């Protein structure tokens, strides 16, 4: 009897002894058996790596390309509520049946002698690539899951490769040496193919890696730039280069509610892919782009999946102050391998009261540990709960109309909160 999508996902969790196992040998072998490497999955492929900003860069590149009439496929991870969120074709989340068909193809190839063990992410990536390859795509935009050089997505050769930002995260897998992390992220570059550097503070190893393999480098602040200042909500201008090397400018672009550095980077990546960007079409696309879990407002609540100091600093910069007399609450739940102290420090000046929640699982972290870290930095912990939902219940009886809540720290935290109506003050 054929498995449902839910049954396939449950099965994938049993395939490999560890959840994360860096390397391309196993996933490349199965991809070869599936025929995934015989021809490109789309006419043009853009791959996006980085510590923060990958998801927003993918979402904006996808939205702008769709608005220009391209048939676009996108792959990103993780998801918030439905696994189907990870694969989008022509702007729509993929249905269950193509994913089921894809997992069946992955399993058939995996079980050929000699049998190959795959992680959940590796099997999901192969399935996503197979699904994208079944459609006639003008452009595929792929998000690297972890690292770059050894990430499963990197079996695909990019026509344009992007590195957004570099910061410490996933230290147990990528280490704490920023230069080495930059080298790993830059592993997605390919000889003679454009390398887009989406931050002005990247370690030198990123450009050095690109130059070492003869990939032409396009840096934010040099080859392309934007006029956006510190104030949110204002129109901005983009200046970049076409694939032929000509200068191009787009004026009066709307604030998409996502980092402008990432928006500018997405536009440069599209220009390098050969897309002729039109001002009015780009304006409309950026005005309508949405990315769940990134400064997503639901009434008094702002939900963000940010889980490292770099992301927290961006939130601190962009988060509006609550109305006069209101408190700025924070509901925080983080995994054990994240830099909680750095996140707390970045947000501490803004937060009047903290609610800490436990996240379950092998990488979970107890609310009580977060609370101690907040208290050590002088913060006020109002309460702790054994789940994000429990934290929301604490706030249900405390919120006034002037209060605001920032919920952050993990995809798991935000996903749990999005799965239920959030309490609002009467």
TrEMBL record:
InterPro entries documented for this protein: Folylpolyglutamate_synth (IPR001645), Mur-like_cat_sf (IPR036565), Mur_ligase_C (IPR004101), Mur_ligase_C_dom_sf (IPR036615), Mur_ligase_cen (IPR013221)
GO terms under cellular component: cytoplasm
Location of the Mur ligase C-terminal domain: 293-411
EC numbers: 6.3.2.12, 6.3.2.17
One of the GO BP terms on file: tetrahydrofolate biosynthetic process
Keyword check for Membrane: no
Catalytic class of the enzyme: ligase
Highest taxon listed in the record's lineage: Bacteria
UniProt keyword Ligase present: yes
Pfam families per UniProt: Mur_ligase_C (PF02875), Mur_ligase_M (PF08245)
Single GO term (MF): ATP binding
Recorded metabolic or biological pathway in which this protein acts: Cofactor biosynthesis; tetrahydrofolate biosynthesis; 7,8-dihydrofolate from 2-amino-4-hydroxy-6-hydroxymethyl-7,8-dihydropteridine diphosphate and 4-aminobenzoate: step 2/2; Cofactor biosynthesis; tetrahydrofolylpolyglutamate biosynthesis
Catalytic reaction equation(s): (6R)-5,10-methylenetetrahydrofolyl-(gamma-L-Glu)(n) + L-glutamate + ATP = (6R)-5,10-methylenetetrahydrofolyl-(gamma-L-Glu)(n+1) + ADP + phosphate + H(+); 7,8-dihydropteroate + L-glutamate + ATP = 7,8-dihydrofolate + ADP + phosphate + H(+); 10-formyltetrahydrofolyl-(gamma-L-Glu)(n) + L-glutamate + ATP = 10-formyltetrahydrofolyl-(gamma-L-Glu)(n+1) + ADP + phosphate + H(+); (6S)-5,6,7,8-tetrahydrofolyl-(gamma-L-Glu)(n) + L-glutamate + ATP = (6S)-5,6,7,8-tetrahydrofolyl-(gamma-L-Glu)(n+1) + ADP + phosphate + H(+)
Residue ranges annotated for the Mur ligase central domain, each copy included: 48-194
Keywords associated with the record: ATP-binding, Folate biosynthesis, Ligase, Magnesium, Metal-binding, Nucleotide-binding
Family: Belongs to the folylpolyglutamate synthase family.
Function: Functions in two distinct reactions of the de novo folate biosynthetic pathway. Catalyzes the addition of a glutamate residue to dihydropteroate (7,8-dihydropteroate or H2Pte) to form dihydrofolate (7,8-dihydrofolate monoglutamate or H2Pte-Glu). Also catalyzes successive additions of L-glutamate to tetrahydrofolate or 10-formyltetrahydrofolate or 5,10-methylenetetrahydrofolate, leading to folylpolyglutamate derivatives.
Descriptive protein name: Dihydrofolate synthase/folylpolyglutamate synthase
Upper lineage: Bacteria, Pseudomonadati, Pseudomonadota, Gammaproteobacteria, Oceanospirillales
């Amino acid at each position: 009897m054929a498995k449902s999508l839910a049954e396939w996902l449950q099965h994938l969790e049993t395939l490999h002894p560890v959840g994360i196992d860096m390397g391309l040998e196993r996933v490349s072998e199965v991809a070869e058996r599936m025929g995934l490497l015989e021809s490109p999955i789309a006419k043009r492929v853009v791959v996006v790596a980085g510590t923060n900003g990958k998801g927003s860069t993918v979402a904006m590149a996808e939205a702008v390309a769709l608005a220009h009439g391209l048939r676009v496929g996108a792959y990103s991870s993780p998801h918030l509520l439905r696994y189907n969120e990870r694969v989008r074709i022509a702007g729509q989340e993929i249905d269950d049946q193509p994913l089921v068909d894809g997992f069946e193809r992955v399993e058939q190839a995996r079980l050929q002698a000699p049998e190959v063990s795959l992680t959940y992410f590796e099997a999901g990536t192969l399935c996503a690539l197979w699904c994208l390859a079944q459609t006639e795509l003008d452009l595929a935009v792929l998000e690297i899951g972890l690292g770059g050089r050894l990430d499963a997505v990197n079996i695909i050769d990019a026509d344009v490769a992007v590195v957004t930002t570099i910061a410490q995260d996933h230290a147990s897998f990528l280490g704490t040496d920023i230069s080495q992390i930059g080298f790993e992220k830059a592993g997605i570059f390919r000889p003679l193919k454009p390398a887009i550097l989406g931050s002005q503070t990247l370690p030198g190893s990123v450009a050095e890696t690109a130059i070492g393999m003869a990939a032409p480098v396009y840096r934010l602040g040099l080859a392309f730039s934007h006029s956006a200042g510190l104030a949110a909500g204002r129109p901005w201008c983009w200046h970049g280069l076409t694939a032929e090397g000509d200068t191009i400018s787009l004026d009066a672009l709307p604030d998409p509610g996502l980092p402008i550095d990432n928006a500018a980077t997405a536009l440069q990546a599209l220009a390098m892919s050969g897309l002729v960007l039109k001002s009015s079409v780009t304006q409309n696309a950026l005005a309508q782009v949405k990315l769940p879990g990134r400064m997503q407002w639901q009434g008094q609540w702002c939900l963000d999946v940010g889980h490292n100091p770099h992301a927290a600093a961006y939130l601190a910069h962009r988060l509006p102050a609550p109305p006069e007399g209101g408190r700025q609450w924070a509901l925080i739940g983080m995994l054990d391998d994240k830099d909680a102290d750095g996140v707390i420090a970045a947000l501490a000046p803004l937060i009047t009261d903290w609610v800490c929640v436990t996240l379950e699982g092998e990488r979970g972290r107890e609310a009580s540990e977060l609370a101690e870290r907040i208290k050590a930095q002088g913060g006020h912990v109002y309460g702790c709960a054994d789940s994000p939902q429990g934290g929301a219940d604490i706030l249900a009886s405390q919120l006034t109309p002037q209060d605001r809540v920032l919920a952050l720290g993990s995809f798991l935290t935000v996903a749990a909160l999005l799965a239920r109506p959030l309490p609002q003050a009467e």
